[in-house]
TrEMBL record:
Protein name: Oxidoreductase
NCBIfam families recorded: oxido_YhdH
Gene3D superfamilies assigned to the protein according to its UniProt record, in alphabetical order: Medium-chain alcohol dehydrogenases, catalytic domain, NAD(P)-binding Rossmann-like Domain
InterPro entries xrefs: Acrylyl-CoA_reductase_AcuI, ADH-like_C, ADH-like_N, ER, GroES-like_sf, NAD(P)-bd_dom_sf, Zn-ADH-like_protein
Amino acid sequence: MADTFRAVLISRDEDKNQTVEMTELSPSDLMDGDVDVRVEASTINYKDGLAITGKSPIVRRWPMIPGIDLAGEVIESKNPQWKAGDKVVLNGWGLSETHYGGYAERARVKGEWLVRRPDGFSAKDAMAIGTAGYTAMLSVLALEKAGAKPEHGPVIVSGATGGVGSVAVSLLSKLGWDVIAVTGRSSEHDYLKDLGASEIMDRSELSEKGKPLEKERWAAGVDCVGSHTLVNMLAGTKRHGSIAACGLAQGFDLPATVMPFILRGVSLHGIDSVMAPKELREEAWGRLSEDLAPEKLRAIASEVTFDEVIETAKSLIDGKVRGRVVVNL
Ligand code: NDP
């Protein structure tokens, strides 16, 4: 490995103006950690778009290498759990917030943050899944642990053409659910049907203030957008159904009433991918290797070069990116 490596760096001046550039670093520039990883692939999540555009306060120390996900191979390790050549994946754990992230050819991280990459997943496959796909799986696991089953009725997925939504639609349809995919993009109905959606709902049906309780229409749901959409999803959930809340693309507010909870026993499950414990991560990655059909993954993912990462992250925030984007380092 060369002495220097390329990395994207976010910096801030005294007036808190943010700049993002491709730069050259050496291993001594990296932050503390006990495992060095040669990063082969990363990805662009919504949160990466927010960090690169500075639209939300994701970065909490400057300068920062963004990228909340990475996949690659261990170069050297002081952690007994890992050795050179091990194939690993890392999602979250403060990458791009407080610790240098995946948009660099080399990363130094804590060994306990790493998960062994399941056999059969290349680094690019793992990043086609990324935090978005692993969050979709965490949401599915939360619904299953709450007792939700396909025979109870359909499942609804909001933000369906996004990264989390696309993977959630694919997983849930493979698991036997009738999936109602909620989207604002009329041009993507065929894409969602190909992923396994049995019904498409326009996002405008859920995005405005509705009634505290609506007709019972779905038994479970995965919500990527928050705000009125999540509230309306709760209002239309069948008795004793469950919704997993993982996102805020519409807003982080929750203008809800308690009616679905106390009159229908509906449950709301929060999903946190960043600090999820290692055992849950391993369970999620194990299930992804069983339940996500490779052809669906290929349909969801597109690829960009390392040089295109900054521009693509901006497009994602402008709502111009479908599915998942793999960054090939
Ligand atoms: P994407 O940008 O890929 O997808 C978001 C989708 O939300 C869009 O594709 C769009 O879907 C929909 N959307 C966008 N704006 C609006 C709006 N104003 N109203 C309603 N729907 C909208 O992001 P990701 O899939 O990567 O992430 C989805 C959400 O989940 C984000 O908020 C992200 O921060 C969050 N997240 C949370 C995690 C956690 O640990 N809890 C982990 C990962 C992500 P469409 O065009 O189909 O309507």
